[in-house]
Structures are given as C-alpha cells and as structure tokens.
C-alpha cells in the first residue's frame, strides 16, 4: 500500500517548471532519501506534499498523502512568542505535552523547555523543530535538511535518534539531504532529482550497518557520480568497483560513459572485495582465495584497457553523405581468451576524453603491491606512522621501476584522518568524544570477524591472542589484517584500546590537532618522500571536511603545496599524469619512426 502517491506533478516559477511531470510512489513505512543539486525540485516537492506550495504556480498533477503529516524544515519556523515546549506541543493535550518534554530530552534539550526560540542556536532550533515533528507520531514525516545547522557530534546523535524513532513508529519518511553517506546510512531507498524529474531511483537492501563503499551500492554510486558530474565542472569522480563481482565489458562501458558525461574526470578505484558477505550475494559460498582474486583483477584490467583502446581516437568519421559513422579499420576486435574471461571486443562506444579512467588501487599486501606496480596510476594506502609510510613509498616506487614504468607516474596517496580544533586541547577533546561514540560490542564483532574468531575470544581488557592466524592464512584483506595486528603488538594495546585507535581511521594515519599542525604533518610526509598527496578521510562528514577546506587548505596554499586554481580540466590533468597511448596504435607509431630513420 502506498502512503504517498504522486502523478504528473508540475510546479513552476515564471517560464520554468521546477517539478516537471513527476511520478512517485512511496510505500507505507518506507524511508526515502531525496538528493539532487540545488534547483532540482527537492524542497518544492516536500512543500507540495505538506500543502505549503503557495509560493509556486500549481500547473498540474495529483498527489495523495496520509492524514497525519509532520514537517521538519531547515528553517525551523519556530514561533518566537512561544516558549520551546509550547512550540513543540502546540495544539496537543496534556499527554502530548508530557511526550513533548520527553522528546526534547531525546534531542538533547532537557531543561530548555521554558527557553525562548531566540535564545537557542541554529542547531538547537533545528532540534526543536525535529522534536515538534516527531512528537505528533506522524504517518508521514517530511524533513528538509533537518540536520544542516548541527555540529558533527550532534548530527551523529540525531541520526541515531531518528533511526530509532523510525524503527519504533514506522512512519513513512521523505528526507531531503545533500549528504550521500547520510542518505545511505538512514534510508531504505534513494531518489535523485534532476530538473524536476527522477534521475535515479534505487533501493538500499543491505540489512547491516551501511557504508557507501559496500558492493551492494555499486549502481547507486555510479548513478550518483553521473548526477554529480552534471552539477560540477572540475572535481574528479573516482568510483569504487570490484573486479571479483563485475565483468570487464559492462564495467568498461559504464566508466566510459562517466568519462564522457564528466568531460574526462572519471577514475576507477580497483578493488578485489574481501568478505564472505559479498561473496554470498553473488552465488558463492565464500570469498575466493586472495591470490585468485588478484589474478582475476590483473586479467580484468588487461581486458578493460583493450576495450577502452578498441576505438582509435580518430576512428569516428561521421560522414553523413557516405553513411559512414566510423572507420572500421580503426575499431579493433582482439578476441581475448584467458583464465577468467573470454571477450571479443570492441566496446560499443568510442575512446573517452581521458583514453580510459584514472586507475586507482588500494591493496597493500604483497600481491596488492605487485598489482599496483603493473597497473595503478594512483594508490590509496593505510599507513599509521611516518616510518611505515616511508617504507611503503620506497618499496612500491622500487617495484614500479623494476617492471619498466616511470615511478613519477604512480602517485602514492596515504589516508589521513584529521580531527581539527581551534586549539590542540579542543582537537584532542573532540577525538576523545568521537572514541566514546564507538559501540564496544559492535566494534568487537567487526574485529573478531576480521580475525576469524568469535567475539568472546577477544576480551576487551586483554591484549590480542598470541595464536592469531598468519597473513598467509587470511583470504580477506591481508594488508589491513597485518596492519592491525602489528599496531596492537607494537604498542601492547588491549582489544578496547585497539578499537579506540582504529576508530574512524580504520588503520589510517589519525591526527588530532590544529589546522597548522595538520598542515605540518602533511608537509613533512610530502617533503620527506612518504607521500605524493593524501586521501583526506574526515572522521565526521560534512563538518570535518569543511574544517579541513577552510582551515588547512589555505595554509597549504600559502606554503605552495596546494593549487590556488585549476590549470587542467581532466582528472589526469589534475594529477599531472599523461593521457595513455592507445595500445593498438603505439606499435604503428614506432614502426613509422623506424621507417623515417
């Protein structure tokens, strides 16, 4: 049964339709996250459902909503002449007033019932608005950026509160957000609007804690990258895709499309995907052996690059009079027959602006480093200390040189998790508070799963067991396993201390300090030959990224370590990397040079 039913909805301003014939059904109890660039019609849709579209022209369509609808908009719309509790419970009976006090406590505003709205911060006003919406136990909750003015830690708490309340009361929820991770963590379904119509509509079916890196979100990620490409001009768009659970032809086709749509800004983060959960969703009883996954990945990349090169750059003739689209002599089959794949080629689209997407790799095991040396152009890696980062950098650059590639054209980008405060004391307090938000039992289950143990085999107040499996016995993420064990052994950590150290960084370099101190760390790694750049991984989004951009980036720019403006238009250009030569023409070029000589 649909709680919301929309047919042909049209709303407009002047000569523009903000909603242009929108159709949408939302089943009873479903949580839908609504994304899209500014002006795509998200807020207009919510206001139409709330009966508040008096400031637009109603040009057509029909909609049906439940009887009990509550709204929580970014502009909290509290009545300034009523105290906080009166705002929350306006129109409710005595019992509702009691529920209102309880709800204010739930949103962290206990004791503020008698405050006036103007005495509250913007974030506190948003929490009051959310309490006002939820206390009425609506059948339909419409929320337009309800967390936009909240600080990072309160935002996390409110995510948990909203999730708990939704699970308890099962209202239908339509949430407008610009935060993709927020959408994936909270929602059952993601809808992306573009120019008043639905561009993406995907269900989120994972019954587990969610992350945008899960294989089950592959199609959502790629659709979102395409949507982001249309709303941006310069930023690179690197999508993670597994070589274990894809086929070369389909994946090459998707990344080619993304590269065309974005004007040459696509990148592929190549992963082999460890974990039995993913394997069981693709017809396997367990994760394939580590060595086998990397062998498949190598063949996968070989086939993909042949597909991307199967059209020469000048293959398209576009001669309408002669009815010739492309020069068939410049469109190549290659009839690949290998251990894992049989692919004839060519791809059914021309070579893209970058030739093929920037190839990124993230494995740091021995197999992973050998793979990176052969194929990667950028490497994401987790290195918790400078010494480990320097050793990894030197090792990989050496391997790259030994296979005949230019080490300068393989960029090593360690992850850094900056926790930034105005003072060092404030940063450390924030880091400690983030650690307190960790669920010990959930974290212990995750750690036990990585080690192939039962949670009760990892007492929180004891060190790791001495008889853990060796890296050779692990078929999952070998390098991350070794990193975690070495960290615990080196610093003699208990299981709980290890969980705290891993925290949001998951083994990456975590640093709590001022913007100046974070910039110092980045400069030291860069100038000392431990990094060519960094993968910035804020512990909390979006506020952590905003602090980095507003605080650290200007310091790096002053030191000449970060650009002040773009000089290129493609992702390869941003990274200072060349466009790859076409493997079907490079031999021909060499032959021509030999003839001329």
Gyration radius from CA atoms, angstroms: 27 Å
Largest sheet: 7 strands, parallel
Q: What structural class should be given to the helix and strand makeup? A: alpha/beta
Q: Average pLDDT, to the nearest integer?
A: 86
Q: How many β-strands, per DSSP?
A: 20
Number of continuous helical runs: 20
Strand content: 15-25%
Helix proportion of residues, in percent?
Answer: 25-40%
Brief sketch in words of this structure:
By secondary structure, this protein is of the alpha/beta class.
General description of the model:
40% of the residues lie in helices and 19% in strands. A hairpin with a 4-residue loop joins strand 14 and strand 15. The chain has helices at residues 42-49, 84-89, 94-106, 122-134, 152-169, 180-186, 218-231, 248-262, 276-280, 290-309, 366-375, 386-402, 424-436, 440-451, 478-491, 495-502, 515-527, 543-558, 571-575, 586-596; strands spanning 2-13, 16-27, 31-35, 57-64, 69-73, 140-144, 172-176, 189-194, 197-203, 237-242, 266-271, 316-319, 324-326, 336-337, 342-343, 358-361, 378-381, 411-420, 509-513, 535-536. It has 597 residues and is an alpha/beta fold. The chain starts with a strand and ends with a helix. Strands 10, 11, 16, 17, 18, 19 and 20 form a 7-stranded parallel β-sheet that branches. A 6-stranded mixed β-sheet has the order 5-6-7-3-8-9, sandwiched between helices.
